[in-house]
Each structure stands twice: as C-alpha cells, then as structure tokens.
C-alpha cells in the first residue's frame, strides 16, 4: 500500500476526483470575468452567469435581484456539490473533506459568539454563516458565557472539540478574547490538518503541505500586522502563530519581535516567495492590498494542485478556488450595484 | 430531381424586412423552414443586442409556464394534445398572453400559499393533539412517582422561608414546563446538550410517537419524539428555550391542569375539522383554476417557444442606416427563392406593412451549406453517409448508391433465407404502422433507432432473402426446389457400388466424370447436395472468398469512377488524367486482373479437366515475380499480358505522385492561367454587406447568377511544397490502400462463414436434440427446444450477428468505398424552422427543477 497509492487510488476515489475535475472545468475563466465586468445591471450579470456552468441558478429569483442573493445562491451551489462529494467519499478522503469544513465551522462559531456579545439574536446571525461550516449545535452557542462553558456544554460533541484542548480559559468572552480564541483554534486546526496530510503521504502530502504552510505563514503575518497597537504581548503573540509553516521557527520569533510594518517586511525578505508578495504591497502601489496579494498567491498554489493526479489536494483546491470565485463575482456585482465601475477590475482571475 | 446525386445549389440572399412587419415575416419563414440565417453582429455580446428585452419577456413567460405545468402535473390533470401547432402570436397579442399568465400566476401562488399555510396549521394542530395525549401519560406517572418526595420537599422550602435564605419562591420562580416534539434522530444529542448546559437542573421525559408525522417545515415524514421538560427558574428556562430552538423542536404550550388539557383537546378537534373542510375547498378551487389553465397551456408553451426563436433570429439581423428596416443575410436553396418571396409577401401582408419586404440575391465567396433533400426512405441512408461527414457543397453524394450497395454488402454477410424473412417481416411491420402515433411517440431510444432505420432494415432483409437463396440456406438447411443435379444412383450402376460399400466406407466421393452422376448445374444458387457433403466448407470457402474479391474490386472501381463526376463538376479536368486514370489503372491492372483470372478459371475449366485446374494464387504471385515457375500458362501469351499489366500499374504510381503538382506548378508559373478553377473556400462568416450595397443596384432579381463567377478573387496562394506533400500522402495512402482494402473485403467471406456456421451449430445443438426423441415426451421437449431455438435465433443470429454485419458493411462503405472520392468536409444546411425546435414539454427544462448537481 505504502508508496503505491497511485495504483489503488482510483478504486476508492477515482470517481470523485474525476467529478471534481469536471467541476473545476466550470470555474469562470478570464473571458467570463471580462464579460461580467462589462455588465450594466445585475440583470445582465444574471444573463451572463446563465451562459456559464451556473446555468439558470438564478432563474427562480424573479424580481429585485440583490448581491446577497447571488452570493447565497453561489454558496448553495458549492454546498450541494460539496455534500455530494462528502456523502460519496470513503475514508480517509471523508476525514480530509471534514477538515476542509472545520475552518468554516470555526469562523461560524466565532461569528455567533461575537454576535451574542452584541446582543444580536441567533436567528439574525445564522443566515450569515457560511453554509459549509454549519453544524447542529450552532444555535445554542450564545448560551455560553465563558470558553470553558462553551466547550463543556456545547462544543464537546462537535468535531471542533479536538482543537480546544489548549485554548480553554476561564476569562469572560469579549472582543479581544474571541479574536485570540479564533487564532488559537486556527493554529491547532492548521497544525492538525498539516499533520494529517503528512501522515497521508504520497502526492497528497506533496501538494497539500505547501498550501497549508502558506496558509500558516499568512496567518502569522496577518496576526502580526493586526496586533500592532493592541495590548497583546510578544509572548502571547508568539503563542498564536501556527508553527507548521516555512517561517517556523526563526521567522516566527522574528515576527514576534517586530513592532511595525517595516520590520515585518524585513522578516519577509528572508523568504523568496514572501518577499515578492510584500514588495509591491507598500502603501498604495497599484492599489492592491496585502490581503489581495496573499489571495493571489493562494489562487496560484491551488491552481497548481490540479496539475498532479491521485491526491486529495484537488478537493481542497476546488473549494478554495470556488470560494475565491464567489468573492470575485460578489465584488463585481457589488461594484455594479453601487455604480463604482472604476474599481470593478480588482477581482482575482483564477484561470 | 438532380438533388439526389449532389447537394442543391445555394445562394446567399439579403432580406430587407420592414421593421413593422419583420416579426411576421420571420414567423412565416419559421413555419416554412426555407432559409438559414447568418449572424450579422457576431461581435455584439448576447445581452447588448436589439431584442434582449423581448427575449427576457419570453423567458419570464416560460418561467411562469413552467410553474403552471409543475402545478398541473402535481394535481394530476392530464394535458390535452395539441394537434395543430399554433402560429406565433402577433406582438400585440403577446401582452395579452403575458397579462393572462401573470394573473394566473398571482392567483395560483396566492391559493398555493394559503393552502400551504392551512396545511401547516393542520399539521401543527395534529402534532399538538398527539403531544397532549402523550404528555398526559407523563404527568400521571410523575404525580404518582413523586408523591413521596413531595412531602419531604415542602418542609425544606418552609425551613428556607423561615431562615430568610434565597428560595425559589421568593425569587418568584416556579416550576416551568416546556413540551414539544423533536425528530427521533436528534433526540440523543438534544438530551445530552440539555443535561450539560443546564447541569442537570431539568427533568426530561419523553416517549416516541407510534405514527410518523409530516414535518410542517420541510414536509418530510419522520419519526418524532414527544418530550416534556420541567425546570425551575427563568434563567434555565431561557437556556432550555434556546437549546430547543437550536434543535428545531416544535414547542407547544403545556396546559397546567387536566381540565385545561381536555378543553384544549376538544377545541383542537373542532379546529382540525374546520381546517380540513377549508383545505378541501381550497383544493377544489385550485383544481378548477388549473383545469382552466391546462386547456391553453400547451398552446402557450409552443407559442412562447416560437416567439423566442423569432426574436433570436431578429437579433441576428442588422439595422440599416435609417433604422426603418432590418437586413438579414440568409442561405437559401435557389429552387426555393420563389417560395421565399411568397413567404415574405405573406408576412408583409399579415404585418400590414405599406412597403413590402423583399429579397435580394447577393454574391458570396463563402462556402454554401450542403442541403440534400431526403424522404422517409432515403433519410436513413443519407444519415449513414452524413455520420461519416457531411458532403462538401455540390459534391457527389454517395447516398443513392448506398441504398443498393449497403443492403447488398450486408446481405452477403448475412445470407440466410429464414433470417432474412424474419428481418424483412419485422421491418415491414414497422413500415406499415409508421403512422400509428403509439409507435412513433415511443420514448425508448433503442426503439427509435430501429424505427428510424426501418426502410434500411427492410432492404437489408430483402437482400438477405436473395443472398440466402443464392447460398441456398434457410436456418442453415438447404431447400431442394429444383432437385439436385447430382445423382448417387449413377454411382451404383456405373461404378458398381453396393450396400456393402456404403457400410464399410465412412466417406465416399461422387465422381462427376462418371456419366449420369452430374446432370448439369443447379438452376439457381448452390446445389442443395452440398449441405450433406463433408467437403462443403472447402467448396463454399473457395467460392465466397473469390466472390468477395470480385465484389470488392467492383465496389472500389465504382468509387473511383464516381470521382470523375466530382472532377468534371469542379472543372478540374486535369484531375481526370492525372488522378483518375492512374488510380483506376493501378487498381484494375492488379486486382482487376485477379478478378478476371478467377472468372476465367470458372469458365475455362469444366468438370472433366478440373483435376488440372491451376491455382489462381500461384499465378498471381508469379505475375509479380515475372516468372512462370514451370506452371502451364492459363492462356497463350499470358506472360506478355502480365508483364504489361505490372508495368502499367507501376508506371501509374509516379504519374499519380508527380502529375498533379507539376501540372499545377506549370499552371501558375507557365503563364496560361486557366480561369476555370472552381473551388469553394471556407471563409469566416463575416458580413458581406459592404459588397452587397455596391452590387445591389445592378443585380436584378431573377438574373441568374452563378456563384463561381466571383470565386476567383479568393484564389489561394500556390505552394508547391504543400501540394507535393499532400499528393505524396495521397499516393502512398491510395497504393497501400488498394492492397489492404482488397484484403479488407475478405470480411464478406469471413462474416458470412461465421454466420452460416453459427446457425448450423444452433440447429445441431438445439433443434436436433428435440427431433431425436420420438416418444410422447419428445413433443414436449421439441416445443421447449423450439422456444429456446427461436429465442437464440433472434437474440444471437438476428440481433448480434446482424449488428456485426451492419457494422462491417458500414466500415466497407466509409473506409473502402467513400475514401476513393468523397471529401465530406461540408457544413449541413440547418434552416430556421419551427418544426426543428425541440418539441414536447419535458425536453426544454420547463418541467421540474433541473438538479443542481448531477
């Protein structure tokens, strides 16, 4: 079995891999985006999306099309595809697919917690959660007052429980703490996912590990940049960095020490691929933010995943690319709806 | 009727449609299906075209119609058949239809919403009723169980009161109940969460419902559990409430006392009854509305479909400068021009336009599409040809010859009288009931395939009967109609055979040289006596092998000869000398001569000198080696003739290889330019409007114009290298192909042998077993065996063998026959016709939601 995974990969996963590659062919291409960007109204946008793989997914929305409706429908389509894949998958692919959903679950959970802090009813918040990260106990999250309670009462049954071991504390949940909790959860999640892919070995490891390492490093950079001006101590900050990335360990300790944007950039200079990302992202050079550049790099990595065969990376890459596509379309739709045509080209084309 | 042999002459025409009557004109053209429209604004994206809003309106109407159809189907109301297809509605009427549809939709959706609400209400009430009935059990039980502890609790509380400690009562808290239903699957997780979140300060009792209940939210039928939670205090109450929400429990108020419960139950009963009557009424009303809608919904679907098609066509047209009329460019068969004019007049009249729309023939350098008119008989054969490739414009069409050769080659491989009769009868039945709507409307794809090829199957069956008679085989048995030409009796009288001879010798040979044994040839087909002979296979193999070679050479030569008509039509006379003649010589000198030798041998050697008949194969090989090897010549001067033939064949190769390129080179550089080169180049489908404007004045209608007069300007750049390369490939392909293709025709022999052997095996293994036993049980066995025999005959011999023979015949036509002359690089003429629109309600996605995934 070991080392010959190519031989029997198709026995269990061949159908789904073929399927996901077929789905991938439906991802919008550059000319599609160019056409979309030319649209004048959302109706035109709908007409155009009809000629793509989305088909008439909006046809039953007769009047007053809004951006959020388009967003919901696109997510719904992705969810339907993902559910199909998930329910036809076998171990270990099903665990892998579950791992993909965990990150959405973390986001959803924190969205609900912050919402509860601001006294928003759960019924308002639930529709705003990402459908990929839905889980049963979501509605009850607002009951919890402290992380321990949250864990003990609600999350212990969910798959997220495994990420909670370290991040339990008795402090009350507030804005800052939720962010810290989010980052701690993510750290454990990415490290665990990375470990899973490593154990899987073969092409899956070759493809997935660079993607996850990049994801880890991106989080480290983002945490550092966002923590400027808060009262987060260096040690605390260092504790939030996922350790499975390329930056570990020297880069992370350097990041933990850095105090401003220039120092972060100096850290990135030590790494060829991050240097490129930070180079153009100064303060307004061709108005691309650091975030966009990270997204671009992510898209590149994910698109590369489709070049090799017999691995699980394609599933991850497909979900991420589709997510990016949704972001793109929503951006374009938003620009059209608000009549800000000058910024419409700021999407990130995928293929 | 020249159109059978080559595709019809096409012309490019411009239609000037007055904007007022354009819609009616296009509608008229759609009904008649005369012309193919070209896109005049390919650069404009689909949502920037002129009639987008109209198309959108059509789509909106389709959406409503789809909704209507779904509702009608849900109700189970049958849709009436539409016999006559209604014409597209005039634009004025569209608004009316639209209004009607919208009103219907509004009405329907309101009623449906009401109905849904009522149904939901009803479900909730039933759930409530069920819950109350079950929770009564809980209460009774708990009252009985808790009788003891209650006494202990009261002093505890009172003591608290006395000491002034915080007690439940002082906080105003009291025992609270929450009761409701939850899905069975979620029960355990719910209970666990409840326990964890409330730290056990609740009492949870539950019991499963016996019957399945429809969920009011999702409409699914699930098993549910009724639960009752009792708790102390508001804080916990809120928590419990939240947890219930999270698990989508259906909560219902819990009555405090038994009397209240009975009251509620009573009122529930009356309300349920009321609701049911209201629901019944609503249903009836809904049915009425849908009944009314179903009468015209089919007409509307067709009308909207036509309308949408018309607007799509109008989007292909361009506007002239004054915006008063639309200009369309169409391909139209020259023969149909008058019909086109008449249709336009009719359209203008209907549209009430003051200025009529008119046609203008314009020159074009594009490749016209290929139109071959077919009828129900020829369409099957034309489809076979088209599946290989649609013929180039005005190219020789192999289909009319295929009508004869295809069934014939099939029958050579499928030669059996009995099987042919079964096949022909089946096809005849299909032909006779082709008007029966039940047969034609069948949705089964395999059946439709057979049905579409019914005439072909009929022909194949008839030809199989013929070849079966020639082979003298009927279910692998021979028919002795004219009595065999061989006589065994003569052997007894002349050679003094006795019964002893018969008994001692397992094999005996009839000697045709003995007088009286062979009394002449059997009048038609193969002598039935061969069926009993043990050397039957040797005899038939030799015969069928030779026959396949002869058939093959004839078939291929015919293909080459058909090329002549192409060369003549396209005015490429040099091809006649430089391509056709060497090709034909090469084939005939080698394989044609082989055929001649075979026939010669049949004729020249009679029964008497059969022992000294030479081997054709040896002679054929010697012909290439140019030696005699001591064989006696077949005829005087054989050596000279053979050398001559081989040399001719070899000489024709360089002619074929170099002739055409050299000639073309000379043509382009030698000065004398020949103007008759007529080739059609495929060009981009660009607009030729500019050209037409200048030319339109001097082009009166009716002036006959030949398309080729202007094709010279598209004369291609001459490139000797590519022409040489092309011709070299063609030569190699042809010369090697001659050998391999001739060998390929041997499949005729191989398949007919296989068919004969298989049917013989079937007879020997199955029917003979049944015939052998001659007791009473034998008849039963025979009947069983006959059933088995007929099933196997149909499934293996008719279907499987028939399919394989069909495929081989197809290959012989496509590869061996058509590559001798047929280009097949044309584009099919697809006229704009309403009859070509997908018909039926299910096919256009109106019905049902298209599944989002898979």
Automatic annotation (TrEMBL), chain A:
Highest taxon, organism lineage: Eukaryota
Keywords: Hydrogen ion transport, Ion transport, Transport
An annotated GO cellular component: endosome
Transport listed as a keyword: yes
Molecular function GO labels: proton-transporting ATPase activity, rotational mechanism
Coiled coil: none
UniProt cross-references to InterPro entries, sorted A to Z: ATPase_csu/dsu_sf, ATPase_V0-cplx_csu/dsu, ATPase_V0-cplx_dsu, V-type_ATPase_csu/dsu, V-type_ATPase_csu/dsu_dom_3
Subunit structure: V-ATPase is a heteromultimeric enzyme made up of two complexes: the ATP-hydrolytic V1 complex and the proton translocation V0 complex. The V1 complex consists of three catalytic AB heterodimers that form a heterohexamer, three peripheral stalks each consisting of EG heterodimers, one central rotor including subunits D and F, and the regulatory subunits C and H. The proton translocation complex V0 consists of the proton transport subunit a, a ring of proteolipid subunits c9c'', rotary subunit d, subunits e and f, and the accessory subunits ATP6AP1/Ac45 and ATP6AP2/PRR.
Family statement drawn from the similarity comment of this UniProt entry: Belongs to the V-ATPase V0D/AC39 subunit family.
Role noted for this protein: Subunit of the V0 complex of vacuolar(H+)-ATPase (V-ATPase), a multisubunit enzyme composed of a peripheral complex (V1) that hydrolyzes ATP and a membrane integral complex (V0) that translocates protons. V-ATPase is responsible for acidifying and maintaining the pH of intracellular compartments and in some cell types, is targeted to the plasma membrane, where it is responsible for acidifying the extracellular environment. May play a role in coupling of proton transport and ATP hydrolysis. Regulator of osteoclast fusion and bone formation.
Name of this chain's protein: V-type proton ATPase subunit
Organism: Aldrovandia affinis
Automatic annotation (TrEMBL), chain B:
Coiled-coil boundaries: 94-128
Keywords: Coiled coil, Hydrogen ion transport, Ion transport, Membrane, Transmembrane, Transmembrane helix, Transport
Main location, first listed in the record: membrane
GO biological process: vacuolar acidification
Database matches in Pfam families: V_ATPase_I
Topology class, membrane: Multi-pass membrane protein
Gene Ontology, cellular component aspect: plasma membrane; vacuolar proton-transporting V-type ATPase, V0 domain
Location(s) in or outside the cell: Membrane
Transmembrane segments annotated in the record for this chain: 408-432, 452-471, 547-565, 577-603, 639-659, 780-800
GO terms, molecular function: ATPase binding; proton-transporting ATPase activity, rotational mechanism
Role, per record: Essential component of the vacuolar proton pump (V-ATPase), a multimeric enzyme that catalyzes the translocation of protons across the membranes. Required for assembly and activity of the V-ATPase.
Entry similarity comment: Belongs to the V-ATPase 116 kDa subunit family.
Protein name: V-type proton ATPase subunit a
